[in-house]
Write a structure and sequence with these properties.
The protein is mostly helical. The protein has 2 domains: 229 residues, no CATH class; 216 residues, no CATH class. 84% of the residues lie in helices and 0% in strands. It is built from 15 helices and no strands. The two termini are 29 Å apart.
Length: 457
């Protein structure tokens, strides 16, 4: 029996590069925001609106990419190299098909954004942005699918290095294409779109090259017979993937709704919310990376039929996430003022009010972080068992059936205001965490009573 500390060490070894790659992915979006902000406020508004539209479609269509992690980890645990290849190949098929299906929505985004009440001048630029960045959706989905394949094979360091290279490339391309340099004209928000397309293509190419020719990767023959259909594997990846996409969108919708509610409460509340949610989002990347590591390790033990290892791998992942929560709580409570203040101009007459609100929200974020970590870790472990449909139902019920109504009730029908909105988020995430965690341990207990029979490709 492997000691728990060894399980924790192995999860950290696998998970830390994934944490780093998630943070680096955030930096790509942050550099877009900073550089468009330096170009012009209208360009920033259009870029933000367009990027949000793109990201929503990306979340919806990326479920197939994440669905292969559990399948490939299970197959790798059984030593089934062909099964790994079949899952990844059909994941790539579905990623490409989903991206092609979503592209027309971006080309026709103008009327949609207008119907959503966005200003006409912003819609014109946002639509121009989306018609260009649409060309990057398939490369972005291709990239995340290869990343999932490599993660399932525990090749996570290359994922980190390629994502960091993407950050550097994005800065360089933005500088050239947004502002203009040498033979390149000044393109503004359209330049940011072309930079995003270039970064997605480059990252996908680098990861694909490693997956095909990297050390020890030839045995998996990822690109062998790439056009050969495999309808059994196709159907299994589809069944696992579409609920993951809807789960991602439902959670994203919860936070989008909270931002709208904050905007209705007031500009200062929305500003404080924006700052606090960025801070909380940065620390959440730790749990997201550990969750992906949990998917891989639980899937490996499930494939091997090792019930004890499966349980210990899950406990180790939850324990590491709990330690990260404790550290984040201490950071929020003892350094909240410093972190929020870094986003504010001390000379702004509203800075003191926003600072006070932001620090208060970070105090609530301690509880927020605990339940958010719980739900994402449970989701990761369930995906390792190839269980995605019931978790999707739980997530939608918790986020939309509970979180949003409670946020509205606490925010607008009590004296809590902005704090009430965040407490409502905590309630929704807590319900999801409880339902998903209970679901996982019940499945594990059920597998203790009978042989593990996971779907095989």
């Amino acid at each position: 029996m492997i000691p728990l500390r060894i399980h924790m060490t192995r999860t950290l070894t696998l998970g830390l590069p994934l944490v780093g790659s998630q943070v680096a992915q955030m930096l790509i979006g942050l550099t877009d925001t900073l550089m468009l902000g330096r170009y012009s406020v209208p360009a920033l508004a259009a870029g933000t609106l367009g990027a949000t539209f793109f990201f929503t479609l990306f979340l919806l269509t990326s479920g197939f990419a994440y669905g292969i992690i559990g399948l490939s980890s299970d197959a790798a645990g059984r030593g089934d190299e062909r099964g790994v290849r079949r899952a990844a190949r059909m994941g790539l098929w579905l990623a490409v098909l989903a991206g092609l299906a979503a592209m027309p929505i971006m080309f026709l985004s103008g009327p949609i954004l207008t119907a959503l009440g966005q200003p006409a001048d912003v819609v014109i630029q946002a639509e121009a942005y989306l018609r260009i960045v649409a060309l990057g959706l398939v490369p972005a989905l291709f990239t995340v699918t290869i990343r999932s394949h490599l993660s399932a094979l525990e090749r996570t360091r290359i994922v980190l290095w390629v994502t960091l290279a993407g950050v550097a490339l994005n800065v360089g391309l933005n500088a050239i294409l947004i502002f203009g340099a040498g033979p390149f004209p000044e393109l503004g928000v359209r330049g940011a779109a072309w930079a995003s397309v270039g970064v997605n293509v480059a990252m996908g190419a680098m990861l694909a090259l490693y997956a095909a020719r990297g050390p020890g990767m030839a045995r998996w023959e990822l690109f062998r017979n790439p056009l050969r259909p495999d309808w059994q594997a196709f159907g299994q990846v589809f069944r696992l993937g579409w609920p993951i996409g809807l789960t991602h969108v439902s959670e994203s919708g919860l936070f989008a709704a909270s931002a709208l509610m904050m905007g209705n409460l007031g500009t200062r509340e929305l500003a404080a919310h924006g700052i606090a949610i960025q801070i909380a989002g940065a620390t959440f990347m730790v749990h997201l990376g550990l969750s992906q590591a949990a998917t891989v390790r639980v899937g490996r033990y499930a494939g091997q039929g090792d019930r004890g290892g499966l349980r210990d791998a899950a406990v180790a992942a939850f324990a590491l996430s709990g330690i990260a929560v404790a550290l984040a709580m201490a950071l929020y409570w003892f350094a909240g003022g410093t972190m929020v203040g870094a986003f504010l101009d001390p000379g702004d007459p509203q800075a003191a009010t926003i600072l006070s609100l932001g620090v208060g929200l970070l105090l609530v974020a301690g509880l927020f972080q605990l339940v958010d970590a719980g739900q994402v870790m449970a989701l990761g472990c369930l995906r390792g068992l190839q269980d995605t449909k019931r978790p999707m139902i739980y997530a939608v019920l918790a986020y939309w059936g509970c979180g949003i109504p409670v946020s509205y009730l606490f925010g607008f029908h009590t004296a809590l205001g902005a704090y009430g909105v965040w407490l409502g988020l905590c309630v929704g995430l807590a319900v999801a965490a409880i339902l998903l965690t209970v679901r996982f341990w019940r499945l594990v207990a059920d597998r203790d009573a009978r042989p593990i029979r996971l779907g095989s490709v």
